[in-house]
Amino acid sequence: MLEEKNVWDLVLSKIDIVDIISEHISLTKQGKNFKACCPFHGEKTPSFVVSPEKQFFKCFGCGKSGNVLKFVEYYKKITSLEALKELAKKANIEIEDHFKNWHDNSLSSEAEDLIKLNKDASVFFQYEMLVTKNTDLESFLEKRKLTKDLIKEFEIGYASSEKSFYKYAIEKDHKIFTIANSSLIAAKNERNFFNNRLIFPIKDEHGNTVAFSGRAISDSDNPKYLNSSETKLFKKHKVLFNYYHAKDEILKTNEVYLLEGQFDCIALYKIEIKNSVAVMGTSLSYDQIKFFKNCKIILFFDNDAAGIKATVKNLKIILYYAKDLNITPYFIDNELKKDADEIYNLDEGKSLKELCAKKIDLLAYLYNEFEKNNKNQSIDENERFKKNCELFEIMFYLNDQFKLTLKNRLIEKKIFASEIYRNYELNFIKPNFPSDPNFVSNLTQESKKKIAGFSRHATKLNNDFVMPDEVINNFDVFEYQIANSNRKIINSNVRSHNSKAKNSSLMFGRSLSFALIIKAILQQPNFLKNWDKSVFVRLKVDENNQSNKELICYVINIIKSNNYLNENNLIELIKNDSNLNEDKKNKFIQIIMNLKTINNEFSQEKFDTQVNNLVQNNKTYKKIIH
User: Fold this and answer.
1) Where are the zinc fingers (CHC2-type) (predicted)?
2) CA end-to-end distance (rounded Å), the chain
3) Judging by DSSP bridges, how do beta strands 359-361 and 328-332 pair with one another?
């Protein structure tokens, strides 16, 4: 039996591209090639070239290109498999038996029936878009700036509540079983699943329509988006909106824009960026991300809380598979709290074009995030700490040179004191995002099996994440020239401090509460007027907070003796205190050093609340990271 590759090659060997294309458009011989006006976009001067020698076509106007299969696929708007079958028939080659027995890639008869039904459904929805007279629909299309050309290009349809899809499908001789399992009618009756919604077809990588996404056209309709349920044909972790439409451009550019929704893809298409896909509310899976092997993946989400969360969630997955698939993350630094579609509508795409031209690399992204997280005084200290941990875990995937460069910049700009940076570095630059306990478990078993080398133990992932050379030109942090000798000296210094640094701990939970109290006392000693030292002495603490408790009592004793204190002279007092042993001195000094990362200013009321919380809650806080 013929192998898959041989079937395609056999058909192509029996077909001449000039003969097939000339059946549909008029070709004129010019030298050894043929020329014509492109059938895929309007033009008056021919830019569509067909090469008999290479059996290849290319339009130098719109960029469409490929072999004879691709031409038939484009021209007739059919899948690659349907194009193959059509050409095989012309060449008198019988391939049906082959595909029936082609086990790994064949579709079940149920799935094939669903493909046929979905194809008719797409026609049904597109026809309804053309004939429906609905003021809400017209208003929505105008607001979203969806022209007739865009509607045609993306095969956008409309689902009316007045027209029964079930009746249409029966008239088309589809099986009742197929209709019932298509997610196109309600589960308990024959009513439409989609009503009064704009309809986007969701296609697999072969161009088969496998599902639909319905967008409400009225603000009163909920949910805003309604997607097909999973079927025998549709598995949401295996498809991305617009991938089939964009894949040629992705292959040509080796870049893909990763967006949230359908309208974001259309917005980029309006400004001639045709290599975008949308995740539609889900996170990337291996089955999706493998489409982008050897590509730059440019993350472009909203700048609101949900968009920031989606960026980090998808970035982790990209980094997890980066080495295996040779993929590199980039980012659109979206300072506007708007999505791509909203930005386009600000000024007909001018701002969107400017934004897309300024993509940044992982190094610049991390620096920006560190700066925002640590210079914003309104962020809660626990939240600040958690975000820092997350960013340091992402740093694991930078190679050593870039880690060192980022470290120098963060310390130079006083975002971190060197000791604090070292604590984070030792505790959190680790693989597989340990502060996110669900990360690895959320990856599907199927996905894990496909990654050679760490199918069972994700920590085997290689952390030598190397960025392309042009990254250096994107970020002024590279003004630092890092010689090997300097790197060795710094690495040596870090190692020499390891024994001390390992005993130090970052502050979070109850440790942070103690630290905030110490900081407040040093700034405003009069805050103690409502509290007796015995309150702190009686506090029950775990081993991790024993030194914090003792330091508070130590500070209170000094203040009661009418001594002036601040963070700096407290360290000198501790160093010179003969009543403290060296271990106790080191622990106290480390706690005080950590206070330098805390910028909170306390009122008497806030201080009293913080102390009262410690008094009332004698439960031991769990560590965020072990």
Assistant:
1) 38-62
2) 57
3) antiparallel
